[in-house]
Amino acid sequence: MGHGGGGVMSAELVDHVFAPAFGGPLLAGLGDSAVLELGGARLAFSTDSFVVRPLFFPGGSIADLAVNGTVNDLAMSGARAAYLSCGFILEEGLELPVLGRLAEALGAAARAAGVEVATGDTKVVEAGHGDGLYINTAGIGLVPAGVDLRPQRVVPGDVVIVSGAIGLHGVAIMSVREGLEFGACVVSDCAPLGGLVEAMLAVTPDLHVLRDPTRGGLAAALNEIAGAAGVGVVVQERQVPVPPPVAGACAMLGLDPFYVANEGKLVAFVPREHAEAVLAAMRAHPLGAEAAVIGEAVEAHPGMVVARTGLGGTRVIDLPLGEQLPRIC
Amino acid sequence: MKYLEEFQNPELARRLLDDIRATVTRPWALMEVCGGQTHTIIRHGIDQLLPDEVELIHGPGCPVCVTPLEVIDKALEIASRPEVLFCSFGDMLRVPGTDRDLFRVRAEGGDVRVVYSPLDALRLAQQNPGREVVFFGIGFETTAPPNAMTVYQAKKLGIRNFSMLVSHVRVPPAIEAIMRSPDCRVQGFLAAGHVCSVMGVGEYPELAERHRVPIVVTGFEPLDILEGVRRAVRQLECGAHTVENAYPRAVRPEGNPAAQAMLADVFEVTDRAWRGIGVIPDSGWRLSERYREFDAEQRFAVGGIQTREPAACRAGEVLQGLLKPHECEAFGTTCTPRTPLGATMVSSEGACAAYYLYRRLDLPQVRIAAPAGVEASSVV
Question: Which residues of A touch B13 (CB under 8 A)?
Answer without folding.
Answer: 310-311
